[in-house]
């Protein structure tokens, strides 16, 4: 995946690896990568996901019910 000025360029065919996603408070990014993470070869950490509960209450419960391997990690306290 490559960032472009107006979006993303996604090239298919390659397996997804693990990594960290910065959702920047965008529930669409958080949920899309939660879905994509199910096919990843490694763990995927998605940051700043509190907004998902506002836009789609129960997403985590529904996703777990569908077989997603979601877990909520404790976040670090803000610094500074």
Structural write-up:
This protein is α+β, with helices and mostly antiparallel strands and 80 residues long. The protein has a domain at 17-65. It is built from three helices and four strands. A two-stranded antiparallel sheet has the order 1-2. A two-stranded parallel ribbon has the order 3-4. The protein is globular, with a radius of gyration of 13 Å. The model is unreliable at 76-80 (pLDDT under 50).
Question: Could you name the key traits of this structure?
Answer:
two-stranded antiparallel sheet; alpha+beta; two-stranded parallel ribbon; 3 helices; single chain; 80 residues; 29% helix; disordered C terminus; 18% strand
The N- and C-terminal alpha carbons lie at a distance of 33 Å
Mean pLDDT across residues = 87
Strand content: 15-25%
What is the radius of gyration computed over CA atoms, rounded to a whole number of angstroms?
13 Å
* Lateral arrangement of strands in the main beta sheet: 1-2
* Strands, count: 4
Q: What is the helical fraction, as a range of percent? A: 25-40%
SS-derived structural category: alpha+beta
Query: Can you summarize the main beta sheet?
Result: 2 strands, antiparallel
Q: Can you tell me the residue ranges where pLDDT is under 50 for at least 5 consecutive residues? A: 76-80
- Tally of helical runs: 3
User: What overall geometry do the principal axes of the alpha carbons give?
Assistant: globular
What is the element string, with H for helices and E for strands?
A: EEEHEHH
Which secondary structure elements does this structure contain, and how are they paired or packed?
Blueprint (H helix, E strand, L loop, with lengths): L1 E3 L2 E3 L9 E4 L4 H10 L7 E4 L2 H6 L3 H7 L15
Parallel strand pairs: 3-4
Antiparallel strand pairs: 1-2
């Amino acid at each position: 995946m490559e960032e472009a000025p107006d979006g993303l360029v996604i090239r298919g065919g390659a397996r997804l690896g693990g990594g960290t996603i910065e959702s920047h408070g965008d529930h669409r990014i958080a949920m899309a990568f939660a879905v994509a993470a199910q096919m990843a070869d490694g763990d995927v950490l998605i940051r700043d996901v509190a907004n998902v509960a506002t836009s789609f209450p129960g997403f985590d419960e529904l996703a777990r019910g569908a077989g997603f391997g979601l877990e909520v990690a404790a976040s670090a306290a803000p610094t500074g």
